[in-house]
Amino acid sequence: MPGRFPESFVKASLESVPTGGRSAVVPAAKRATRWIFLVAGIAMSAWAPMVPYAKARLGLDDAQLGLALLAFGGGSMLSMPFVGWLAHRWGNRAVIMTSGLLTCLALPMLASVPRLSTLMAALLYFGATLGALDVAMNAHAVDVERLDGGRLMSGFHGLFSLGGLAGAAVMSSLLAIGVSLTVAASLITAALVATVLALRGGLLDDASHSIDAPKEPLGMPHALAWLLGLLCFVSFLAEGAMLDWSAVFLRDFRGLAPASAGLGYACFSVAMATGRLFGDRVIARHGPAWAVRTGAALAACGFLLVACVPTTATSLAGFVVIGLGASNIVPVMFSAAGRLPGTPPAIAIATATTLGYAGLLSGPALIGFLAHASSLPMAFVAVAGLLVLVGLSARIVQR
Prior knowledge:
single chain, 399 residues, mainly alpha, Growth Hormone, Chain: A, 18 helices, 79% helix, 0% strand, globular, disordered N terminus
């Protein structure tokens, strides 16, 4: 059966814990997985408050900054297709530890780069290591979910979302009280490095199973992995629309002041984190297909609400609905990808993640083209239409 976990891997995982007995393996792995998702969220979002400082320090214009930021996404896209093979070969724990430590070390580099070329190199490195961590931790999450026998993926992603809120808040607070950028980045890095090092004992020791696996031909990912990736593309595109276009929409179409236009993304982010933290219970009760179908329908309604009802309060409510609806789509897709028959979880998840990130990176530009050809509200309506297609494809996660 596709959901059956390899006996050799279970044995290797259980033997990896020297004390505490077999009953301690799964709880320890769950705790470690939650923490690594939190670390990844903090590391990624801690960069956001640093962007204006980098722009001012290096004297960049908007075009130069945009080019530099493109390197971050490019690094992730370059590393993800290869990380699936590395995780399958050496085990998720080894990749998580290596990429986790390398990701944390990027923050002090980003705080002190002296010129545009080194900023782009640092962002390329940051994106590559964070992309590697993303694939490996999701593959590890699938392993933990299988061993536990319950639904855990949405909760893991919820902690990533909480980390995203916490990382930006902590970095902003340190800068606000007068801590220098380099010192603030170093303090956060030290805390994250210590956390990653402390997690090693809790992560599943899947190396022995993984090293044996390449003796079997890997081949191409299962066709369903590509389809799941395309559905992730749409969901990430919707998230990218919120990140890059919600403030513009509120400013240009709802008349909010620039200082308040970020409220839309804040509403979306908090709603998404909340939806993910409670998502595992909902999915366990109603099933993954219901979660995708209902979530996609909610997110589509949210986009229509934002686009079609011309009041600020309704738009903010729409952003909340989008966040709640989209919150569990990607976790369910990743969990389904990790359970596909005939494809190692890390490779299937690498496929889905790469296509998903492609949506996150290219989606805002596609929306920009649509907005230029028609209007931004009409572009949001088009995103709603794509989400309807995701809902109609929900049955795929049951296979």
